[in-house]
Design brief:
The complex is a heterodimer of chains A (112) and B (111). With 112 residues, chain A is mainly β. Chain A is 0% helix and 50% strand. The radius of gyration of chain B is 13 Å and the shape is globular. The chains are: A mainly beta (112), B mainly beta (111).
């Protein structure tokens, strides 16, 4: 069964450092999303990406965040200068042209 | 803006039926989805309703009333493995632009 894969599974970084979270969506999917989930809280939308550009972003997705699809398969989320409050689980998800989102297993980001 | 409300916690007995409600306030509503998330895991898709009525998938059913901005997830013949968090999520716009999740309902199934 096709799946969304995310790397790394856990990333520890110092405050102020840049991190790149990587995702390989399902190959024939067209819509890609990043979500985050702070421990014990709800899943929060960050950004959606379609046709090689951002289609929508939330208020959380400020100038410190960026997304790219550098090579047609990977989908990355970059946080330029991490803050303590960026510590969370980050999920990548992809959709085909149906209503079911497939989520990766997430990257746990810990900012120290 | 958008808002979704669902109970934060529900406890039910193994073998019983439980209903998890979700009310929403959104603009550009397209459909209501339900996702299950076990502790430490990723959300997994359970069901989707774009039209009013009941959708049944095995032990799980989902209902939507667009006029009431309300839906629910019904879990029958509860099993211990059903202990998880359940999120309702609204799809907006063309359905693919943005999906907003509720806070999640933590279901505990007890023997």
């Amino acid at each position: 069964e096709p799946e969304v894969t995310q790397t790394p599974s856990h990333q520890v970084t110092q405050m102020g450092q840049e991190v790149i979270l990587r995702c390989v969506p399902i190959s024939n999917h067209l819509y890609f999303y990043w979500y985050r989930q702070i421990l014990g809280q709800k899943v929060e939308f960050l950004v959606s990406f379609y046709n090689n550009e951002i289609s929508e972003k939330s208020e959380i997705f400020d100038d410190q965040f960026s997304v790219e699809r550098p090579d047609g398969s990977n989908f990355t989320l970059k946080i330029r200068s991490t803050k303590l409050e960026d510590s969370a689980m980050y999920f990548c998800a992809s959709w085909a042209q149906n209503t079911e989102a497939f989520f990766g297993q997430g990257t746990r980001l810990t900012v120290v | 803006g958008q808002s979704l409300e669902q109970p934060s916690e529900v406890t039910a007995v193994e073998g019983a039926i439980v209903q998890i409600n979700c009310t929403y306030q959104t603009s550009g509503f397209y459909g209501l989805s339900w996702y299950q998330q076990h502790d430490g895991g990723a959300p997994t898709f359970l069901s989707y309703n774009a039209l009013d009525g009941l959708e049944e998938t095995g032990r799980f059913s989902s209902f939507l009333s667009r006029s009431d901005s309300y839906g629910y997830l019904l879990l029958q013949e509860l099993q211990m493995k059903d202990s998880a968090s359940y999120f309702c999520a609204v799809a907006l716009g063309g359905g693919y632009q943005k999906v907003t999740f509720g806070i999640g309902t933590k279901l505990q199934v007890i023997p």
